[in-house]
From TrEMBL:
Domain of life: Bacteria
Span of domain Thioredoxin: 19-163
SUPFAM superfamilies: Thioredoxin-like
Keyword field: Signal
Signal peptide range: 1-23
Statement: the UniProt record of this protein carries the keyword rRNA-binding: no
Pfam families per record: Thioredoxin_7
Protein name as it appears in the record: Thioredoxin family protein
Species in which this protein is naturally found: Hymenobacter rigui
């Protein structure tokens, strides 16, 4: 008597699991922006800025050890609102200084990051966001600010309007 009851329950369980497993994921909305393109050298960013007439947003981060750096990336730079804003208003450059051996950068990239830091981040602040004119003049320096991508882009607009 137990065997038929067990078989029926097991069968029902499998049917429910199969139905759940093959359910389609909801379609992604069209609001998902392509990831932002980040320059990895200051020279490349400045060349692009001169060609487009847009300011450079240079970011100095410690992607695997600096909590505010990680939060800035997750809450602002990885969001579609920031990506859309940056694509039309900024030239992006990222200079990362990871500490973990598994995240070690190639020697040439480390050299480029150190050269950018020698020019723009002598204090060694992390995270540091530097706004530069297309000619390379420092317009403003800031860091992590809570509030998400929309609040951050509003703040960047305020900084850019002051210069």
């Amino acid at each position: 008597m137990r065997t038929p009851l067990f078989a029926a329950a097991f069968s029902l369980l499998l049917t429910g699991t199969a139905t759940t497993s093959f359910a389609q994921a909801p379609a992604q909305t069209a609001t998902t922006a392509a990831p932002a393109t980040w320059n990895t050298t200051l020279d490349a960013a400045l060349q692009q800025a001169k060609a487009t007439g847009r300011p450079v947003l240079a970011v100095f981060s410690g992607s695997d050890w600096c909590k505010p750096c990680i939060m800035l990336k997750q809450e602002v730079f990885d969001k579609p609102e920031f990506t859309s804003y940056a694509q039309s208003k900024l030239v992006l450059a990222r200079f990362d200084f990871p500490r973990s051996k598994k995240n070690k950068l190639p020697a040439e990239q480390t050299k480029q990051n150190e050269q950018a830091a020698a020019k723009l981040n002598k204090e060694g602040s992390f995270p540091l966001v530097v706004l530069l004119s297309p000619e390379g003049k420092v317009l403003a320096k800031t860091g992590y600010r809570p509030g998400g991508a929309t609040a951050y882009t509003t703040y960047l607009n305020t900084l850019l309007a002051q210069k």
